[in-house]
Amino acid sequence: MKEGWKTKPFGEILMKTETVNPCLSPEKEFDYIDVSSVSNETFNIERTQKLKGKDAPSRARRLVRTNDILFATIRPTLKRIAIVPEYLDKQVCSTGFFVLRPEPEIDHRFVFYSLFTEHFMRQMEGLQKGASYPAVTDGEIRAQLLSYPSLPEQHRIVALLDEAFAGIATARANTERNLQNARAVFESAREDALAPRRGWLTSPLGVLCKIKHGFAFKGEFFAESGQFVLLTPGSFYEHGGYRERGEKTKYYVGEIPPEFILNEGDMLTAMTEQAAGLLGSPLIVPESGRFLHNQRLGLFVTTPGKPWFSRFFFHTMNLARVRKEIHDSGSGAKVRHTSPGRIQSVQVSYPSTEEEQRAVAKCLDELATECERLESLYQRKLAALDELKQSLLHQAFIGEL
């Protein structure tokens, strides 16, 4: 720590804040800031509720003032942190926030930035308690130490961080836009490549294949490596394909009917929506003799004599139109699911020869590989920008910025 810096607990550099009871003024309106009002992406108060005192929830008890810093004590590592703007002066926030109001010798934005440091977040992670709603207490936050220089030096550091973080935010927005564009370009190319054309056939999927239910495996599942992996809808991901699930991978021990051991190139579809957007998602089995056909997955069993190349129909099943039709065919309040018959009724267009299907699929696979390369590049850039922010914060709060 540089010479001239002081280190004190938050409790010694924060002013006392006020509590209020809006119910005592039943007809008076106020803006209510709930935990969900704060974005953990922009770190701003994005929205408030206009309430009358008589409608105030029991948690609406903390009066806030301009430049107060709100820190959500529920799930603190989600970083719901924001500075109160002038237009919300003397409004009310939830008791789910700890309100930081620094003494005059402390720049409020200096305190704001300190809450994002890796050190502070590690402290919050270690202190939070509770399974469903992990939280920290106000007292635990007050006990956290802050090292700070003179006020002019704080202003200088804050100005540097403001400028640097504005540039990082712009770079991040551009990178996220490029990431979205890469996927959009591929989706558009797939739509064009699979659009019906002269010489192609159009029919319900049921003309080309039947959807076979999986087996209701009953036995022991364990999280260590084993001979067979039990596929589930959680094995799929949004744009199709197999997803290694790490510790969540299910390995099966028990009697296995041989017809439910899958072969390389078999294509499955998720008939239960375990995660949003996955109903109807396709998966091509990457290896023979390792994966099991579970009951919530439909296996495409091709009709003899009909042209069928699984990679072509993998892309077809990922068309927005097809995915929407399958999703709309589903039912169920909590968990949406569909049936083989509903999937088989979906209309698809396809070349009349397997050779042409292979050619189309090859082009789309090559384009998908390039898209994935770009996505990986943009994801690495986003990670690098996050690392840069943490590096700047670390330097700022050890006096090296």
Characteristic key phrases:
alpha+beta, four-stranded mixed beta sheet, 401 residues, Adenine-n6-DNA-methyltransferase TaqI, Chain A, domain 2, elongated, four-stranded antiparallel beta sheet, 3 domains, 10 helices, Helix Hairpins
The amount of beta strand, in percent, is: 15-25%
Radius of gyration computed on alpha carbons:
28 Å
Report the CATH topology name of the largest domain.
Adenine-n6-DNA-methyltransferase TaqI, Chain A, domain 2
CATH superfamily of the largest domain: DNA methylase specificity domains
Strand pairing plus helix content: what structural class? Answer: alpha+beta
Count structural domains: 3
Let me know the largest β-sheet. 4 strands, mixed
Number of helices: 10
Under CATH at level 1, the class of the largest domain stands as Alpha Beta
Number of strands: 19
Helix content: 25-40%
**What is the general shape?**
elongated
Strand order of the largest sheet: 3-2-7-4
What's the N-to-C terminus distance? Answer: 12 Å
Mean pLDDT: 91
Order of helices and strands: EHEEEEEEEHHHEHEHEEEEEEEEHHHEH
- Unreliable residue stretches: none
**Would you identify the CATH architecture of the largest domain?**
Alpha-Beta Complex
